[in-house]
């Protein structure tokens, strides 16, 4: 896509035609582009405006819950439910804001060498606090020398979404393995679990916005259906691809393959 000026956006394509000819196609996509921009701005603005009222409601709920006077069981249930729902909405708004940030084009100059081993270890450490009662067995295999040129917050968001999904969807006492190493000439971040797996017909739709395989189960886990859409956009900015290997009933592996041109060494 090439912006010819502020108003006009053309999609230019060369398509092979026969053995010795090519077709040149130019399509005016200015309107689609403007509508896309309006949608993105609208979602970002609404999400931003929702943050303040949510913080106020959450503050009042927490204030009532921490009051010295014991609440009777009815009101205790009311405020616990309010707290759960406000937290869900808070997470959804946060994910919408992250998505609108990663949907826009980035400035390649902002990329830095990211110490991936350090970042991944911190994410795994933090994740031990999520769903502690499930007592997962979490193992890692991390190449300490392997770094990536990229955007810190975006990569953190992509990796943490894959780890928190494995934790959310893997039942109690399941095994989750996180690895960061070379695979051929690519760098590869993988999160493997022995959870429920995903049916083949759903795999291709997982990175769509708001797509959730099982809406009721995802609601229980506090899911919004935006996590993998965020991962997809982050990878578009990083010469990287997502592969999903999953067997229904046996588990899933989500792998990010980074192109050799992003790879840096920490030694
Ligand atoms: P959500 O916020 O619902 O987790 P995601 O975009 O992160 O949204 O994931 C989309 C859907 O993919 C989830 O609702 C879930 O059905 C499925 N999914 C993601 N990760 C896993 C996993 N590790 N095991 C099983 N299903 C998964």
Automatic annotation (TrEMBL):
GO molecular function, one term: kinase activity
Catalytic activity: ATP + protein L-histidine = ADP + protein N-phospho-L-histidine
Keywords of the record: ATP-binding, Cell membrane, Kinase, Membrane, Nucleotide-binding, Phosphoprotein, Transferase, Transmembrane, Transmembrane helix, Transport, Two-component regulatory system
Localisation per UniProt entry: Cell membrane
Enzyme Commission no: 2.7.13.3
Domain Histidine kinase: 45-262
Main location: membrane
Entry protein name: histidine kinase
Lineage, highest ranks first: Bacteria, Pseudomonadati, Pseudomonadota, Gammaproteobacteria, Alteromonadales
Gene: phoR
């Amino acid at each position: 896509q090439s912006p010819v000026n502020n108003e006009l956006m053309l999609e230019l394509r060369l398509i092979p035609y026969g053995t010795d000819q090519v077709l040149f196609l130019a399509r005016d996509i200015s309107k689609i582009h403007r509508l896309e921009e309006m949608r993105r701005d609208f979602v970002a603005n609404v999400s931003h405006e929702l943050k303040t009222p949510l913080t106020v409601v959450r503050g009042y709920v927490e204030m009532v819950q921490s009051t010295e006077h014991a609440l009777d069981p009815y009101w205790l249930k009311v405020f616990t439910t309010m707290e759960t729902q406000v937290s869900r909405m808070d997470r959804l708004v946060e994910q919408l804001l992250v998505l609108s940030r990663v949907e826009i084009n980035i400035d390649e100059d902002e990329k830095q060498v990211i110490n991936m081993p350090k970042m991944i270890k911190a994410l795994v450490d933090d994740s031990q606090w999520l769903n502690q009662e499930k007592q997962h067995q979490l193992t890692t295999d991390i190449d300490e020398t392997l770094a990536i040129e990229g955007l810190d917050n975006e990569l953190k968001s992509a990796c943490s979404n894959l780890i928190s999904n494995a934790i959310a969807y893997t039942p109690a006492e399941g095994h989750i393995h996180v690895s960061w190493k070379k695979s051929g000439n690519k760098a590869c971040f993988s999160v493997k679990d022995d959870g429920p797996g995903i049916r083949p017909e759903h795999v291709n739709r997982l990175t769509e916005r708001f797509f959730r395989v099982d809406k009721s189960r995802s609601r229980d886990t506090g899911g919004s259906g935006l996590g993998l859409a965020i991962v997809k956009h982050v990878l578009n900015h990083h010469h990287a691809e997502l592969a999903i290997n999953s067997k229904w009933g046996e588990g899933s592996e989500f792998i990010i393959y980074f192109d050799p041109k992003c790879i840096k060494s920490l030694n």
